[in-house]
Queue: 4 jobs
Job 1
Amino acid sequence: MPILILIIVSALSQMMVSNPPYSLSHRASVGHTHRRLTETLNVPYYVGEHFTEEYTGMNLKNVERSVEDDYIANLRNNCWKEKQQKEGLLYRARYFGDSDLYQRAQKMGTPSCTRLSEVQASLHG
């Protein structure tokens, strides 16, 4: 009996969760194939065929705010990963006295961090 209740609760929770109306990448499997750009940050995102009919005015602004929030969260996460990778290489280079690895680590870029700084400057500047 408890297992049946667990299955029913799980099934109900699955039905209540809806897919977002957009994706940050092209996802034909869920119908997000039409590319758009947000008005504020020009973030590319993908929507379904009937998106423009269903989302207008404040609804569209709310979706675009969510798109930009997700985009910024992804940039923050990727920036953190890039910094960790760079710091790890620098640490290994110092530990093993490898000057070539040290130079390579010093030159390693952090493109997500750069883009995040640009986005933050455009929002607050």
Job 2
Amino acid sequence: MFKFVRSLTGVVWIFEVCFAILLLLMQGIAKLLWRISLLDSFSSYIAGFFHDPARLPDYDADFIEMARNRGYSAEQHYLVTSDGYVLCLHRLTPLSGAPEPGSREVVFLQHGLMQCSESWIASERDNALPCMLVDHGYDVWLGNNRGNRYSQKHMTVKRIDDKFWDFSLDHLATIDLPASIEYVTDFCKVSQLSYIGFSQGTAQAFACFSKLPDVADKIKVFIALAPTSRVVMHKTHLINMLTGSKAWLLYTLFGRQAMLPESLFWRRTLSVEQFTWLIDNCLHLLFDWKVANISQHRKAPLYFHLYSMTSVRTIMHWFQIARGKRFQMFDENNLESEAELYQGYVLPAYPIDRIRTKMALFYGGLDNLPDIAWMKETLPKGTRFTCVDNYEHLDFLWADSVVKNVYEHLLPLLPRSHHAYEPEKAVSHQIANGHATVD
């Protein structure tokens, strides 16, 4: 029996290697096509043919245009981090004009992995959280991590250099996020703001607020949508294969700069239906997500704003967190060694049990990414947990019912809502079919 299992494991390994080679070939072909200028021009023509502006008004829109299409104005602000990256911050405002600094409560929103600020307002006006917050009188700001569409500038390093992409989650959490929060508080002349993160935007906050208490002191309340810190190993074989792969194989497959930049090529050349089908199947293949809570007719305009660049090293950092089962800092020394070998040392983990900020977490009953059980055991007393039974990861941004199931429960937690926070005891809620119940 043992020999049979070993032989079966060998067959699976051969399949994995062959699949990796296939991915490599596809990656090389895609890169070649992307760099041929004639095909790039041809893809623009195809995009104009397939993507009817009347059907997809936001197809090629940036954040400013998307805000205008929803009846708002927007500002772009820029800051330079301590290590030279130029980050863009967006501020969503009413058409009547931006509020005076210090006149309103400030809310800062941070996007997820391989996203940008556009993901927050890709939904219709009535289904987009930033629009709802502006309507409720908040001064709304949205961050953009280094490397994404709006933050691809460095003071001394060119974007085409490997050095530009030499960053991980650690840099996003301990440099980008503190710099962004400091800029917003200084500009708005306030000492504190409210923070809302989605997916990796919550991981940045967990890491930042646990290591930098002076930054945590600037946060009135931290609301985490689809919270992510320590992650669980996935059920899908493909993602497990990638997570357990050696660094040299990952670098061979994906390079040492941006992760999957060819995604923009397929976005431009495929029809609306083809691109939607591709993203649906990729989400199912990688994460076993059904995406059933987002109507089919809404997916295309959302998916077109799903992807934005990040570094391959950031993805590798998440792979290390997954296989190490620790919410830890990036392992520089483990890049070329076996996944499980740590050569007699233990990397620093982010001590999320020491966060002293008020926190409220909204997670999905069908979300197979975060280790919610570990977070419930580790986060401080008073942390509020709300479960939406039938939600997957992306539903907390784009589900048809996200306003009813999440945002209406989120708003009372923000300042000026007259909602009493109870830090002296842990609170856990569950939402089933739109109704919240206390465990």
Job 3
Amino acid sequence: LKQQLEKAGGLSKWLCSVGLHQFVKIFEKQRFTEVELLHLTMNDLKKMGAHAVGPRRKLIWAINHLGQKLVD
């Protein structure tokens, strides 16, 4: 996952590239390892300040999709 994020230019650029720029500030405040990122839940994101359901779902999907690229 770390390599995938590095290819994308880092977590912030990856978030913007998948249309989730609103999460950049949230993730800048929190320092996550790649493993922690893969295990984020909808509830975790809500606790971090991401209250809108749609963007949280999209982020969980995007993280899972990125993680699946490692398996494939």
Job 4
Amino acid sequence: RFPANKCSIASRIDAFADEPTSKFGEEMREQVEERLRFYDSGEAPRKNIDVMQSIIKSMASGEGDAPRAEKRKAGGSDGEEAVAKSKKAKKEKKAKKSKA
């Protein structure tokens, strides 16, 4: 249940965040690994509120990685052209079928 809850929280953050980033998911993954270490060694994992606040502070100060949206936009023009060509080809194929 614990990993499923973390995935659910991460997906909600991604869906509603103004600037999507992978930091929340990475830290939640680390929390899952901390929980597993807790079962092995008894080392107490960090509280979720502390982890979330540290991520927010690091994002506010400009630390961390670039938002994923910017990474996508950097190489997006080739992908967009491919989609446009694909749609155009489908329309042409449909037009030929309807004429026949």
